[in-house]
Amino acid sequence: MTSVTRWVEVHRLAVAGGEAGIARDAGGRVGGVWLARSRFADVARLAGLTLTLGEDARALYQLGWAKDATGDRAAALEYYGHALRLYRAAGDRRDEAATLSNIGGVYDGLGERQRALEYFGQALPILREVGARAGEAATLSNIGLVYDSMGERQRALEYYGRALPIRREAGDRAGEAATLNNIGEVYRGLGERQRALEYYGQALPIVREVGDRAGEAATLNNIGGAYHGLGEPERALEYFGLALPIRREVGDRAGEAVTRYNVAMICRDQGELGRAVAELEQVVELDRQVSDPDLQSDTEMLRRVRQELASSDPGRGSQ
Question: How many CB atoms are located within 10 Å of the residue 110 CB?
Answer without folding.
Answer: 17
